[in-house]
Amino acid sequence: MAAFAGTEDGFKCGRDERRGMSEDAATASGDATSTGDATPVVRRAEDVEYEAVDAADGLAKGVLVDESDGAPTFAMRRFTLAPESEVPRHTNAVEHEQYVLAGEYVVGIDGQEHELSAGDSLLIPAGTVHWYRNDRDARGAFVCVVPNGDDEIDLVE
């Protein structure tokens, strides 16, 4: 477990949790994450534009932060899933980390159905067949984080 130390700017973690090495060792080995020339971005909810997702009626996507904002590694998007809508079975070339913000809906991952609600999180590895179904009367919403770059989406029959 990492030790946290208070600093002038807040808290600093003394170990790289992903590799179990000290911050100094991670930096020396070139494994430390660098933000380069990235600058902070604050985007208000009302400033996020949503677009319908072509392959799925009732699914809309808003980009919260991505590489066009200077994010060096990940894109963070917010999706809404309308009541009584479905996203067909598909795969993606990149992993997805998701956090459910609102509503209740079902996600199918590799043949297993999972009922999700606000506060739940999930990892969908690259190449994994998955789908979504909102049988409820309320809209579902989730944050989805993916690596920057291209993602190939393939619909599965």
What does this structure look like?
The protein has two domains: 1-32, no CATH class; 45-155, Jelly Rolls, CATH 2.60.120.10. The protein contains one helix and 15 strands; from the N terminus they run ββββαβββββββββββ. It has one helix at residues 23-28; strands at 4-7, 10-13, 15-16, 21-22, 50-52, 59-65, 74-81, 85-92, 96-102, 104-109, 112-117, 121-124, 130-134, 140-147, 153-155. It is globular and about 45 Å long. It starts with a strand and ends with a strand. Mean pLDDT is 83; it is low at 1-33.
- Percent range for β-strand residues: over 45%
Parts with pLDDT < 50 across at least 5 consecutive residues? 1-33
The counted number of beta strands is 15
Q: How much helical structure, as a percent, in the residues? A: under 10%
- Counting H and I runs of at least 4 residues, what is the number of helices? 1
CATH superfamily of the largest domain: Jelly Rolls
**Helical/strand content category:** mainly beta
The CATH topology of the largest domain corresponds to Jelly Rolls
Looking at the structure, what is the overall shape? globular
Mean pLDDT: 83
Kindly provide the radius of gyration, computed on alpha-carbon positions and rounded to a whole number of angstroms.
18 Å
Short description, anyone?
The protein has one helix at 23-28, and strands at residues 4-7, 10-13, 15-16, 21-22, 50-52, 59-65, 74-81, 85-92, 96-102, 104-109, 112-117, 121-124, 130-134, 140-147, 153-155. By secondary structure, the protein is mostly beta strands.
